[in-house]
Specification:
single chain; 74 residues; two-stranded parallel sheet; 2 helices
């Protein structure tokens, strides 16, 4: 359940398309399962970490419970 002030980030295209509520940020990150190698999973974790590291400092503290500034992250 989504609460006021939550920031929803999807990393899977299917989840982004099928969620029953709005998503704040969507990162289309390749699924490592088809490749199935430890390296594929490592790359995925590294990519998510890089994006989180870029996003976190850009978030402003909300001035009200429902206002969070979310910039576009490539």
């Amino acid at each position: 359940m989504r609460a006021d002030g939550d920031l929803v980030v999807t990393v899977c295209d299917r989840a982004h398309e099928e969620l029953g509520f709005p998503v704040d940020v969507h990162w289309s990150i390749p699924d490592p399962v088809p490749t199935g190698t430890p390296e594929a999973f490592d790359r995925t974790v590294e990519e998510i970490g890089r994006r989180v590291d870029n996003l976190a400092p850009r978030l402003s503290l909300p001035t009200s419970p429902t206002s969070v500034a979310v910039p576009a992250i490539p």
